[in-house]
Design goal:
- By secondary structure, the chain is of the alpha/beta class.
- The protein folds into two domains: 316 residues, Thiamin diphosphate (ThDP)-binding fold, Pyr/PP domains (Rossmann fold); 35 residues, no CATH class.
- It has 14 helices and eight strands.
- It has a six-stranded parallel sheet with strand order 1-7-8-4-3-2, sandwiched between helices. Strands 5-6 form a two-stranded antiparallel ribbon.
- β5 and β6 form a beta hairpin.
- α1 packs across α12.
- The longest helix has 26 residues.
- The chain starts with 12 loop residues before the first strand and ends in a 26-residue tail after the last helix.
- Bound molecules: thiamine diphosphate (TPP) and magnesium ion.
- The site of magnesium ion has 6 residues, from β5.
Length: 382
């Protein structure tokens, strides 16, 4: 019996805006759905400048002891901007990792809250009502499962909502990625999995942690639609996410998008990337900086100038600095607040701890007796 082909696949790579700031005319013809207008690009470019300023200022805050740790978004901004702009504010869900500042801001998270979060203040995760963004997720991979759950809930309730989750290349080596993808595709939920493949998971290069040539192909294993995009191309990212969103809304289920990008900064302020990356590599990616590309595009169209650049940088710097002042003057937290935001209705055990923690030392409190030395297994009162 002849051997037949059980499965074949190809993965498309989308680039619309090249490194000289030129649009591919065939891919951006007037009327093409998901192509950004000049007004949108201008708006997004200004936000890009603001996010870059935030990165610089947050870095200095950490170095001067006023911020615990901070992961710069530098170099990857086209991902959060393009994807965030393709999702509907107040309708769709943004389920971030920790390098998507722009998408969070666009969907209503105040910059104060992002800074509070990285300063170690839990209140930075309590967003204003109506904001459809989940908290920044540092435990790698966990948020992908949340996105699957959110999208599944939308499907069960027949709501016209789509969830997009962001994660890194390293996160696709975690079980959470595979569980989330499997469940999402089997249940055919309206979810978009957006991988920012920035080539590194801290100091581990992509090729040292996976043998697969692309990350997109991992989605094929689960029956998802897949696409690879130039992640430093604002237009390509926006188009791919826009198409995935429309497909999800029409019942077409899950898309995995692999965005090829690069983090230009250290992993976080706790890292020194010079110890494991070559200067040549960094320089080659600096030439592909998404900001340069969008700026060249706007300049070609006569929509941007040196003067506007200087003005916008000044405006953004002042805006971020004013936000920092607000955060530094944020009122101190009440002690009880660490108990209050986890559950809608506080469980009895937590309520007792909140009641007793400032009046009893450990082991002297009945509610904490399970922690005292004489405790027998199974003797807990709760
Ligand atoms: C479950 C878990 N394991 C390990 C870590 C430590 N850690 C923080 S970031 C990171 C690398 C993540 O790489 P990637 O997913 O590529 O995201 P990137 O930081 O490159 O955007 C690791 C291992 C963590 N936060 N959570
Ligand atoms: Mg990475």
């Amino acid at each position: 019996m002849p051997i037949r082909t059980a499965y074949t696949a190809k993965i498309d790579h989308l680039q619309i805006l090249d490194e000289q700031g030129r649009l591919d005319p065939a891919l951006s013809a007037p009327g093409t759905p998901g192509i950004l207008s000049d007004e949108q690009v201008l708006h997004l470019y200004k936000l890009m400048i603001e996010c870059r300023q935030l990165d610089e200022i947050a870095f200095k805050l950490q170095r001067s002891g006023r911020m615990h740790t901070y992961p710069q978004n530098k170099g990857q901004e086209a991902c959060a901007l393009g994807a965030g702009a393709a999702m509907r504010k107040g309708i769709d869900w943004i389920v971030p990792c920790y390098r998507e500042n722009a998408a969070m801001f666009m969907h209503g998270v105040p910059m104060t809250h992002v800074l509070l979060h990285w300063a170690g203040d839990e209140r930075g995760n309590q967003y204003p009502p109506g904001v459809r963004v989940t908290p920044i997720a540092v435990p790698i991979g966990t948020q992908m499962l949340h996105a699957t759950g959110i999208a599944w809930a939308a499907k069960i309730q027949h709501k016209d909502e789509v969830a997009i989750t962001f994660f890194g290349d390293g996160a696709t080596s975690e079980g959470d990625f595979h569980e989330a993808m499997n469940f999402a595709t089997v249940m055919n939920v309206p979810a978009i999995f957006f991988c920012q493949n920035n080539q590194w998971a801290i100091s581990v290069p992509r090729e040292s942690q996976m043998a697969s040539e692309t990350i997109a192909q991992k989605g094929l294993a689960y029956g998802a639609q897949v696409m690879q995009v130039d992640g430093n191309d604002l237009f390509a990212v926006h188009k791919a996410v826009f198409d995935a969103r429309e497909r999800a809304r029409a019942g077409g289920g899950v898309t995995l998008i692999e965005a090829i990008t690069y983090r230009l900064g250290d992993h976080t302020t706790a890292d020194d990337a010079r110890r494991y990356r070559s200067n040549d590599e960094v320089e080659s990616w600096r030439a592909k900086d998404p900001m340069i590309r969008v700026r060249l595009y706007l300049e070609r169209k006569g929509r941007w100038s040196e003067t506007q650049q200087a003005q916008e940088e000044q405006r953004a710097e002042a805006a971020v600095k004013a936000t920092v002042e607000t955060v530094l003057a944020w009122p101190a937290a009440r002690r009880e607040e660490i108990f209050e935001s986890m559950y809608k209705d506080m469980p009895k055990l937590l309520a007792e701890q909140m009641e007793s923690w400032s009046t009893h030392s450990l082991g002297m409190d009945r509610a904490q007796q399970g922690l005292s030395p004489g405790r027998k297994l199974g003797a807990a009162t709760h």
